[in-house]
Fold each of these.
Amino acid sequence: MAKLLFVSHPEVVIDPDIPVPRWPLSARGRARMEAFAEVLVSLPVCAVWSSDEQKAMDGAAILAARLGAPHQVDSALGENDRSATGYIAPPEFWEVVAEFFAHPEVSVRGWERARDAQSRIFGAMEQIARQAQPGLSVVVSHGGVGQLLTAVLQGVAIGDEAKASNPSGGNYLLLETTPLALFSTTWRDIDEIEADPLWADLRRASL
């Protein structure tokens, strides 16, 4: 049986002088992904995917190296295109993000529309699901990507989807592959994976 594990990248190094897509994981973010990888060793991970943004590639590279799985990159797994504004400092950034989710049919400040980003992301995840091998394929992407994907899979309006538990990132969601669907609607923190009874069930079933 094939399943997908969607993971939002954890903490990054915020540098206004570097384009946002090139921000790397911070020391804290790397440590969290390394600990996550140690837990996943006990599961049959067959592939690791990521967007082409540095923070996602950093997280995927950590998993791929520890798990001995190939790492594949798909730019369609990236965040919504925000190049029209570049870096926006908080709290203004979060105000614009709120507009982005509240008005999915509108290009907020020139950003890629939420509806267009959602269509792109869902298409990329469907493609990964179609070619998934037996075992667990891990997709390392972004929090906003996860929200847009969850809205599709829950069949709800953008903004009404189940939200991730940790605002710093590093959350995961398990998905079915045939068809692409939510295995559970509950987002969980990668730091708490060992306490998640879901994994004991999956190990017993050998996926």
Amino acid sequence: MVQSRISSDRIVPHPPRYNPGRPLKRAFFARSVHDVAPDLIGAMLLVNGVGGFIVEVEAYHHTDPAAHSFRGPTPRNRVMFGPPGFAYVYRSYGIHWCVNFVCEKEGSAAAVLIRALQPTHGIPAMRRRRGLHDERSLCSGPGKLTEALGITDKHNGLPLDTPPIALFARASKPDIVAGTRIGITKAVDLPWRYGLKGSKFLSKPFPVA
């Protein structure tokens, strides 16, 4: 049985149906952000053993006016300009943290925002951190999932294939839907938001075609 470390002194077994696939290495992210983003749907993200399946993401590119990297490097966004396969964590509206995965070659400044997870591992820890019980609400938004997984600015710049972060490939390709991104005022027409079709763990449902 696969096991996960929830804390330094506690091991919690995983249900067999939640066993992860092969580990994803940094090379996985050395591709177009538009290829990486949909390929992350169904992958598993764990931070210190807490996490679940990625069910919603958004792609951002330096040519995109909504991207933090659009106007060039700053102390805040410098991780986006570094090599692929690292976490870019920033504070949104001064309220909550958001985690992104840096993609493409060094200097490209592209990243995938992780918007929602289906919780599978360390759910008691998530409930304690979020102060609620409903699994559907634990990680149904970028700020919610970082709080649930304990992600802060301390994770900014960390590699995605080294503890405390672990990523695992999906076992099979799921049914993916695409639509416009959420909570932005520029480039609002770009269909760069991807999600698991029919998931009840999304931050917001996708329009029905």
Amino acid sequence: MISIISAGIAPGLALLCYFYLKDQYETEPIYMVLRSFIFGALLVFPIMFIQYVLDVEMVFHSKVLYTFVAVGFLEEFFKWFILFFTIYQHVHFNEHYDGIVYGVSVSLGFATLENIVYLFANGVEYALGRAILPVSSHALFGVIMGYYLGKGKFSSGENRIKWILLSCILPIMLHSIYDSILLSYLNWRYIMLPFMLFLWWFALHKAKKARVKMIDSKLP
């Protein structure tokens, strides 16, 4: 039991520490990051229940539609909802990079509890594969969500609305593509590898841009 919980928590904690420590000038309060993490984790069971009902009732006969609505939309929309309504207006969200810290925190809270549940059900031998794919992909979706929410926070007018919408829509689309690859292709590994490389490049590029903005804002 301890080995499963440790294997379930470790990748999410490592990724959260990585992105948290990149906030070099004004790190976010630990209690705020932990609160976001817990909020993300609390989403797991209600979303799993909704997904179970949709699956059992066979609401969607198309794999693509099921993947988009039951997985990509449900998971990313509610993570975005938590992020927008508990963090976006908070006084500690005062730099562009902060959106990434909180986006990763909410996403990894969800991914970590989901990972523990999966390992309890299927065995600790899946821990490495889960760390490389589902947990890391959730973190990267969180980076992208937080990056565009940060752009919205520090923009005005129509630009603000555009970035906020993109912070929700883009993770939904990327998550849907991720799961479509897993569900639709027999040799999914050959397609997943370039997709994950792109996702890492894209998310780290956005994180770097946010850090540059943060550094520029601190210069006299």
